[in-house]
Design brief:
Four copies of one chain form a homotetramer. The first copy, chain A, contains ten helices and no strands. With about 210 residues, chain A is an all-alpha fold. Chain A has a domain of about 130 residues: Tetracycline Repressor, domain 2 (Orthogonal Bundle), CATH 1.10.357.10. In chain A, α1 crosses α6, α4 runs antiparallel to α5 and α4 runs parallel beside α7. Chain A starts with 14 loop residues before the first helix and ends in a 15-residue tail after the last helix. Chains in contact: A-B, C-D. Chains A and B meet through α8, α9 and α10 of A and α8, α9 and α10 of B. The structure holds a DNA duplex (21 and 21 nucleotides).
Chain lengths: ~210, ~210, ~210, ~210
DNA sequence: CATGAATGAGTATTCATTCAT
DNA sequence: TATGAATGAATACTCATTCAT
């Protein structure tokens, strides 16, 4: 509220730009290999100028983490939560999660995935809690499906981590300008996971369009 | 014989120990956040003493990468290559790859998975070639299965990366002292992927025992 | 304006002081034996503070070289170039060159003479070109004299290097507070070289006064 | 006399080779930039092996200095001392000194000229005394000439340093494979200096042959 | 004689951060 | 807001030298 509002979101219009540029650099070179000089230069600021907007390098990383997790909640969790059918929920979650990783604020998400061991103490705890919340959200969907469909033998927890592994690993290899389109990718990953988990193998009516 | 023996494998009995300790530290703190002082202290050496055995921090990382990829070839590729039935090949690869990540030289493998953007130039090229060789090995198995079993609709390339994502992501969450045993994990991941990829869902005769 | 102003000349008022102090230390102890710590301490700065003004030790040396060669051009070449009579040109060059070595920015010039093998690559090429330009300037004067005065049998090139050796060697032995005054030195070196090269031995009207 | 005779010359046949190789490296890269590793590698020894022959890097440099000054005395001073005519003495000294610098043990002599500020304390004093002895030897010759030939007005001390400057500077620029032969160089430098100093300008009967 | 292993002190350089202006 | 100057602590790496074997 006061002028010292570096931590609060209010009144600093350059902060989203700073987060995004920093996230891009953290993604490209790694957090430890990116200097505050790199970031300020990429922003057209001096080092001291950058410090007018942020408190420290670690707080900057924390802000990026929270920004990325905000996106995850807004772009994946919220739309999915509004759906009632569990299988349809899962289909949509896969589609939206892939979409998030591949298109929206790619760098912020990648930093979350890669700079796992970088945060410490309270910051780390806070982030881990938000991550766990998402995992439980996914686990619950899988448990609902399993209840309706006793054919499957996969534990929801293992299914959840398998699915997250499949999707999160994308940042290590998937090239959006390569031969596999995002729609194709989404369709095949959905098919692979749903059939593997023991849910109806046929493609659902909600055929994946990369809804934007 | 000369000082150059740092590059050759011969006659430096402390090198394996150095690799393992360094790999553990790189895994725990990250490559960039681990100082040569950390490594030498963990080895009970001075910094200069450590440099008697290695050429540079980057060469040390490269050596660890190659050591880990040697393990992958010896412990996963070679045993699997001797099998003839494609589906049996895949089952064994999943089992052996999980085993490698969870038990054998855990740190070396984790460093390979995590410190992707750290190497540069020729070292990076060399490592990437070895990685691609493994991916092609897995793709070929999947293609063989698809040929025998036209029911599946998953492209071998996407299947390969999905499987690698599932398994490699383990290092981010799996706790060997947690409630899920390694056998259980192996069984469920095998079931999930094989059924999802479109191969016979019934458990095969080679029920997974974490063969040691 | 940006951090890049290290390379440009503008707006860093401490740079001349830094050059001079560094040149003094390089002269006294040699480039390799002078540490950046020595230089920063002599300037009343920390090491990191020194690096705020310069890019590297090698760039610092290069800057000193160029500064010294600037002096040579301003204090020797330009005044001499305005004279028309070749013999008078030579007398003035000897006087001015001795003056430069013994009085003006002694250290900068000495570093140029002594730290010959220290620069590398492009920096070395650039400096060598500037040096060669001066040698050709002197050679041309000697060639002009030889044309007018066919008595002499000394090749201009050998004459030039002999003269440069005589004068540049001064930094190895001449003590300004010793029994030989700078005027006396100038007079005798002029006499020795002109008579030896085969030009009129009588003292010229421009009797050497160490003009300041 | 005992086995500890590292300092004495006796009983270590590899020492001359070591001196020469070290002198070459000191000349090429400078004393401070040459590591004991460089030297031992160039000799095909280990570092510790090198230390069986020498006491320290500084003692090694001192030994090279003394070796070079031994050469100067043997190859220049002794032959010249046997001549009686002063002018002939001077001619021969010029010829022999140039010869020493350009052919015989080039590196040892160059190190003496260049690594002036490197020695300290007693070693420096000892070397400086030997150097001064040579300068006085040359000064005496010039004084003898001046006594016979009152035409000259150059002080012997200044003449001596001028001549040493001309000749010693050769190591900075003269290329033995260039267009100027060593005989030509010797002849022209002799002519230049003798005429300049005020001694008979005509070439003497002892025309310079690069006596080997 | 020779060596592999080791070291204490030092080197140039970088970095996140601060502060007077 | 912004900056130029500055810093304390750290970083990867090197070096001359020693010593048990």
């Amino acid at each position: 509220m006061t002028d010292k509002s570096k931590e609060a979101a209010g009144g600093d219009s350059r902060r989203p730009e700073i987060f995004h540029v920093a996230a891009r650099l953290f993604h490209e070179k790694g957090f430890a290999q990116t200097s505050m000089s790199d970031i300020s230069a990429a922003l057209g600021l001096t080092k001291a100028g950058l410090y007018h907007h942020i408190l420290s390098k670690e707080q900057l990383l924390l802000a990026i983490f929270n920004y990325g997790l905000d996106l995850l909640e807004r772009e994946v969790v919220q739309p999915v939560a509004e759906i009632s059918d569990p299988e349809e929920k899962l289909r949509r979650l896969i589609q939206k999660h892939i979409q998030l990783i591949l298109q929206k604020r790619f760098h912020e998400i990648t930093v979350i995935l890669h700079e796992n061991r970088t945060l410490h103490g309270k910051s780390l705890d806070q982030i881990n809690q938000r991550k766990k919340k998402y995992i439980r959200f996914l686990e619950n969907i899988l448990a609902d499906i399993a209840r309706k469909n006793p054919r499957g033998k996969i534990q929801p927890k293992l299914g959840a981590f398998a699915l997250l592994g499949m999707i999160n690993w994308l940042y290590q290899w998937y090239n959006p300008r390569g031969p596999v389109s995002q729609d194709e990718l989404t369709e095949q990953f959905t098919e692979l996971f749903l059939r593997g988990y023991g849910t109806g193998g046929a493609a659902s009516p909600s055929s994946p369009r990369a809804a934007r």
